[in-house]
């Protein structure tokens, strides 16, 4: 039998793949974080089938869930093109990253939360910051970076507990926070002040500052960071001079994404 005849008879048709793609394609601007029921209605598949598809996609890292709703992760864009070169957020934020780097004289980085890790999606380097590699695509633990703490601070409590349970809080330096209670308290502080500063926890001598970027639904979809070293700056000086600039630029990126909230530093 020829390939054409096989295709006509459906012998090359993989129903599971078709259903998986149908579920992925049902995520759009009208349904950015749908429930399984909403996806079932959109795809005309049964809810049990949609649930199995979602759980498979979650295991593969293409979707995530919170509060009964599902959201695509950046990894889904790797199916077609590289995330860092195609995602609208990366393109939109690039001039702001350059502005942050120019105003602070330090490297600027943009990152998202992908599964249980921070993924760097854009960077404007100014000078080498110790030995930390922060090229786009770099994946680092959530708990010991200012980016990770900002990205996690506004996640549901169950997401925080999942990361603590599955990843732990490994000690990367003598200063890394490894106690769950202390880590939860830090996330609460980040939520209250609207930004994060981490010193010596990922690498001794490294200071990083981060602020959240929100979309039109006020969800934290990315984090913006400025990094330096303890030999170049002090926490007090960064708080006074860099935090206002960082928070302001993050707010302007958020406005570009349709967010109307104006944070106060």
Name the features.
265 residues, alpha+beta, Arc Repressor Mutant, subunit A, Beta-Lactamase, 2 domains, six-stranded antiparallel β-sheet, 11 helices
* CATH-defined architecture of the largest domain: 2-Layer Sandwich
Please give the domain count. 2
CATH H-level name of the largest domain... which superfamily? GAF domain
According to CATH, the fold-level topology of the largest domain is Beta-Lactamase
Low-confidence stretches: 1-9, 81-86
Q: What is the H-and-E element order?
A: HHHHEEHHEEEHHHEEEHH
Which geometry do the CA atoms define?
Answer: globular
Based on CA atoms alone, the radius of gyration comes out at: 21 Å
Which percent band covers the strand fraction? 15-25%
Structure description:
- With 265 residues, the chain is α+β, with helices and mostly antiparallel strands.
- It has two domains: 3-72, Orthogonal Bundle (Arc Repressor Mutant, subunit A); 83-256, Beta-Lactamase (2-Layer Sandwich).
- It has eleven helices and eight strands.
- A six-stranded antiparallel beta sheet has the order 5-4-3-8-7-6, with helices on both faces. It has a two-stranded antiparallel sheet with strand order 1-2.
- Residues 1-9 and 81-86 have low confidence and may be disordered.
């Amino acid at each position: 039998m020829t390939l054409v005849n096989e295709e006509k008879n459906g012998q090359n048709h993989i129903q599971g793949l078709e259903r998986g793609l149908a579920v992925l394609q049902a995520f759009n601007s009208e349904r950015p974080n749908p429930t399984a029921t909403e996806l079932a209605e959109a795809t005309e598949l049964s809810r049990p089938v949609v649930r199995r598809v979602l759980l498979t996609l979650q295991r593969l890292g293409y979707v995530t869930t919170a509060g009964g709703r599902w959201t695509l992760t950046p990894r889904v864009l790797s199916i077609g093109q590289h995330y860092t070169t195609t995602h609208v957020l990366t393109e939109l934020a690039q001039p702001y990253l350059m502005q942050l780097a120019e105003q602070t004289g330090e490297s600027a980085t943009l990152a998202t939360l992908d599964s249980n890790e921070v993924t760097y999606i854009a960077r404007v380097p100014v000078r080498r910051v110790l030995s930390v590699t922060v090229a786009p695509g770099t994946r680092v633990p959530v708990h010991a970076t200012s980016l990770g703490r900002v990205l996690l601070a506004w996640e549901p409590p169950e997401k925080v507990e999942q990361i603590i349970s599955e990843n732990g809080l490994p000690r990367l330096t003598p200063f890394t926070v490894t106690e769950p209670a202390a880590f939860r308290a830090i996330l609460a502080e980040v939520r209250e002040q609207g930004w994060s500063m981490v010193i010596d926890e990922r690498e001794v001598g490294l200071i990083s500052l981060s602020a959240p970027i929100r979309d039109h639904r006020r969800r934290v979809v990315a984090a913006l960071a400025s990094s330096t070293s303890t030999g170049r700056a002090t926490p007090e000086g960064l708080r006074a001079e860099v935090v206002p600039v960082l928070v302001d630029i993050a707010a302007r990126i958020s406005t570009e994404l349709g967010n109307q909230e104006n944070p106060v530093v």
